[in-house]
């Protein structure tokens, strides 16, 4: 019989509520005392709180709720509205879409014809090359945005190029990045995609200094953290943009930011992106659609309207751990 | 209902409702079906253990492993029947039956000392030692009139748990 552990350390976890009050009941000393608590077999066997929580999680949980894409409510069900909607469809697919595709192609041609020479010819002169590439990337992003008739309102001061700065933003779709890139060339940390997007990623975006990771590789995380650190220290690297939620959220809830972004010890400048749902649902459910389909869908919608707010930069408060910082 | 189709017919809903003894309303069954399909990502017609564990709030529950052995491989009808104990329309008897099944891991209708010890371990594992758990359980059993060797059956559970109110309810979100 161990007489040394008469007093148990109490923890402040939720389990305390489910746990029966066994402390009252344990023998201290070498003989079993008369219990002064009212512990009965009933209390020990009653596991209903834990079971209720488990069943509650099975039935509905807040984490999955963030990823549900709301089914679009069709407003074309009426006899009167339906022909109008048909006209709208015709207009969108036959007129707007080709126009936009044209705009996009022109943009690409211009971009490629400038980019490739610049990339190869100015190999020696790094600084100038970087500047030009940055401008070009901004240009192509503007073209992209124009191809969806994007109306973007920017609020707040434009981000400046300072070292030890990290930008964080919420992430609804791949186009978040493009919208932000239009204003200022960022370096982003993203997941590697298959297909032509991957090709794009490795060639062009390399120029702005992006960092790739593969979610499935565990070791990758350390390498990525190191790269992130290096990048943010460099004075003339593009400011770094991170989407801390780790994946696309449906623009309604905000999944707790993963703490990785906040461990770098830099100033964190938050950016908020909010899409206007009336015009288009920009949420990209990456499990359901591929990126190309998504782009096409965007191009055939009316417009992409969104607001971008650049918020105040925040610093790590003295004594705050990165986890607490992330929770703010 | 053989394999999961994406549409649930009225006939299916009624069949499921009958199977769970009207524990859920038809709307609740539709919501549960959506949830089931959401959880069943590979579309196999049943939710595997891993798919359940991908719900973070479930994975951190101390009884998750025990529940997983009961949940693994259930099709939708059985899934609803499983959850029927948590419906507000379920009787106390049904809830106690559920708790009994959680304890009775080998399903022979008898709960042994070790079964109860295992569940206690799941709930309190890191706080007290095995020896202390055994002492407490033995003492409490003796007080209630059982011994360490006695095998509890369903009626014992009803006697023990039935007297005071048992709160075990879950609300199915219906939009």
UniProtKB/TrEMBL annotation, chain A:
Name all Phospholipid/glycerol acyltransferase domain ranges: 165-276
A single GO cellular-component term on record: membrane
Coarse class of the primary localization is: membrane
Q: Which UniProt keywords apply?
A: Acyltransferase, Lipid biosynthesis, Lipid metabolism, Membrane, Phospholipid biosynthesis, Phospholipid metabolism, Transferase, Transmembrane, Transmembrane helix
Q: CDD domains from the entry?
A: LPLAT_LPCAT1-like
Q: Which residues cross the membrane?
A: 77-95, 102-122, 134-154
The biological processes this protein is annotated with in GO are: phospholipid biosynthetic process; triglyceride biosynthetic process
Where in the cell does this protein reside? Membrane
Protein family (similarity comment): Belongs to the 1-acyl-sn-glycerol-3-phosphate acyltransferase family.
The protein here is known as Phospholipid/glycerol acyltransferase domain-containing protein
- Annotated source species: Gossypium raimondii
UniProtKB/TrEMBL annotation, chain B:
Span of the signal peptide: none
Organism domain of life: Eukaryota
Which part of the chain is the EF-hand domain?
27-62, 91-126
Check the record and name the InterPro entries matching this protein: EF-hand-dom_pair, EF_Hand_1_Ca_BS, EF_hand_dom
A Pfam match is EF-hand_1
| GO molecular function per UniProt | calcium ion binding
Under the heading PANTHER family, the entry gives: CALCINEURIN B SUBUNIT (PROTEIN PHOSPHATASE 2B REGULATORY SUBUNIT)-LIKE PROTEIN, OS08G0442300 PROTEIN
What name goes with this protein?
EF-hand domain-containing protein
Q: Which organism is it from?
A: Gossypium raimondii (Peruvian cotton)
Classification from the root reads: Eukaryota, Viridiplantae, Streptophyta, Embryophyta, Tracheophyta
